[in-house]
Amino acid sequence: MENKLTVKQVGIKYGIYLALVSIIYTLILQILGLAAKQALGYVGIIFVIIALILAHRDFKRDNEYMSFGQGLGISMIIVTISSVLGSIFSYIYIKFVDSSMLDVIREQSMIQMEERGMSDAQIEQAMEMQTRFTTPEMILVFGILAGIFFGFIVSLIVTAFTKKSPPAME
């Protein structure tokens, strides 16, 4: 009896791969001073899609078929592991290495509010609220929750395209 890859094995393997790629990408953006560029942050979605496709391909190669449930299970393990590890990295980086990233986030928010035509009083009130939510601890929590939520949406879409059901029994 041959050992086939399980949903858990594939999910953990690619979750760690995705976390490493995301952390390296984040470090590169930090070093180049491009971390505040929102458009570059969306590149992370491409990394997620690639990781899910490769994981599903790996699973199907070994198991021949992959149900929608198996694909979604693999995907959710991947995005959960990646979100947790990536958020822990961000927490450590912001808390102990470079807390100026929080100032950059706040400054970008203020610029966006001014561009929307908000009054000084509205901006001041919004900035007070944002200051409470832009701490390393809150970024850790929201990073995990947002990663899992948006990862779930991407997982549903990717899995719909990559599933491979066994032929119907006749």
Structure description:
- With 170 residues, this protein is an all-alpha fold.
- It has one domain.
- 81% of the residues lie in helices and 0% in strands.
- The chain has 7 helices and no strands.
- It starts with 6 loop residues before the first helix and ends in an 8-residue tail after the last helix.
**Which structural class matches the secondary elements?**
mainly alpha
What is the strand tally?
Answer: 0
Number of helices: 7
> What spatial form do the alpha-carbon principal axes imply?
elongated
How does the major sheet shape up? none
Q: How many structural domains in the coordinates?
A: 1
Distance between the termini: 26 Å
Catalogue the unreliable spans: none
In terms of DSSP E residues, the strand content is under 5%
Q: Radius of gyration over alpha carbons?
A: 20 Å
Helix content estimate: over 70%
Average pLDDT number: 89
Order of helices and strands: HHHHHHH
Q: Key features?
A:
mainly alpha; 81% helix
List the helices and strands and how they pair.
Blueprint: H1 7-32, H2 38-41, H3 43-63, H4 68-97, H5 100-115, H6 120-133, H7 136-162
Please provide a brief summary of the model.
The chain is mainly alpha-helical and 170 residues long. It has helices spanning 7-32, 38-41, 43-63, 68-97, 100-115, 120-133, 136-162.
